[in-house]
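Section handout 9: paired folding examples.
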Amino acid sequence: MSFIQYNSVKIDGDNNLVLQLVDGGNLRIALNEFIDKFTHEKDQRIKELQDALFDKSKVVMLTEERVSTLAAELDRVTKERDSLSVQITKIIEDFSQKDIAASNELYKQAFNLFINAKLDEALALLSEARLQDELLLIQQREEVSKRERRNLADNYLLRAEMLKLKFDFEEASECFKSASLICSEWKYKLEAGNFFKFVNQFDKAELYFNEALSQSDYPEEKAIALNNLAVLQSQANEYNKATENFTQALALYRQLATLNPEMFLKDIATTLQNLANVQSNMQEYEKAEINYKESISLSRQLESTYPGSYLNQLAATLNNYATLQKNRNAYDIAEVNYAEALSIRTKLATENPQTFLPDLATTLNNIGNLNSNRSQHVQAEANYNRALAIRRQLAAENPQTYLPDVAMTLNNLANSQRFRNDYTMAYSGYEEALIIRRHLATVNPKVFLPDVAMTLVNMATLYSYVNIFQNREKALKCSMEAITIALQFSEFMPLCEKYIQISCRVLTHWGEDTEAFLDSIKSK
């Protein structure tokens, strides 16, 4: 098979794709033109749909139902096209870290096919059968070289990334597993852990992060594995474990930064923020505030040195610090920090919506929480609705990652509607949030059961104190289930203790013996 030989690929400052040839020459292609190779079918379909919908002479011939169907298809295809553009840019950025000339022939051929937008041919070349045949040949040798195993694992990672472009997460997961089995080095365990965290399969992610930790040969590798494991544990509400691992990672990064501050100051800032998030969730506010302030200071320092490179990190820390201040009733200071975070994230989301819209939705949701705490319920609902619209859009493309956020904002919006006596809308929001959270809890109970308890408490309150919804049986059922769940997490999640207290008040409201019920649960 004859094909062009490349050394490396990168995206230059003029947004060109620069391919370095083995003979030393360079081939430049406008990045937009390169992406068009992959999106042209969708672009063509978008044009056809726009022509059908916006040409008055044609649209009048269509039924209302047909117009609605075509509009929905146009929205879906446009989102798929935009998602492909972002993912292709990401895979090119990943290629820039790869010495293509040093790769094996199969990788070079597949890369060549990818550069020519022959995605199906590339995947066919990297077929499971072909890769398994290579593995068999390697296993038959008396001593398998590490380089050969790395190359084959890289092929699996390349295949996995291409499958992710096709949203085939199930087969991609098998490729990550295969890569980590073929080559047990730190890199491949970490890549598998990152993938399974991305698709919210926390048990698998934890397994791979722990394996990455055991395979780490250098302080930097250990610090990365510890940080990623701690982020996972934090999301799984395992705050003590997360605190321990963030603290270890931070110590390693501080040590590394004494030798190379330019490289590792950013990691210190990120880990400080992550640790502060956990401390805030544990209501250790003084400790959290110290770490947030240092993280913000470092992020501003880095941003002043490298303008535009650390805005996202700065916005994240400002957002989380503002949440801490809100929780401590320092509303005016929280508003200032949320406003700066919102300004940054709005700018970033305008420039790159696929990457930064999730962060914008987070800050909008949090500002809604602040508005709600200040009894500014009209403003709260406006911000919640903006956040909800973004999160529904994201969840339509990737429900595994973004459905939890949809449920969060639904629950928050319903709280605000309840305070405004809009009980019917509040009930609808709670009901949808509970359905989503119950579904999520079947997959990740450690992560999502506390959220189920939260929404059950809110519904129990409606069933108890709002005339049009008063229902003793449903109120008791929700409260008892909320208490049963919250007791499992109350030792390390202060909020769960609050859920228990509210639920007990509901039981008392209906004349139930609260102490007897708690004793019966604890005795089981």
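Moving on to protein 2 of 2.
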Amino acid sequence: IRCAMEDLFRREAEAGRVRTIVLRAGDFFGGTGSGSWFDLVVAAKMNKGVYTAPGPAELLHEWTYLPDFAKAFVGLAENLDKLGTYEALNFPGHAVTDMEIKAAAEKALGRTLKLTSMPWWVLRAGSPF
């Protein structure tokens, strides 16, 4: 879906009908808000001594610190004159495993966390497709 959407944006920009800047990023963490994947799954039970890995714990995953991502948007907006009618950019986030995040959380908390996995079957069971 994302590729088809980006192809449409690129074609429309090349035809002169729209200007599009795509800034791709990993899953969000940080900031003053709540409700991100990190908040709702990964860190949700840390106060109870549990770290929940959303995927394979040794698999590298891309995370994006939300305040840095917002600054990147501002930077792009301030430099529109240097950009084309269609730009597709990748935001350089943080490529880490769940084991690395868990170790950092344990260091910050000063205690060991029990590793659990995201119960994907619950989401699949509730999905209409």
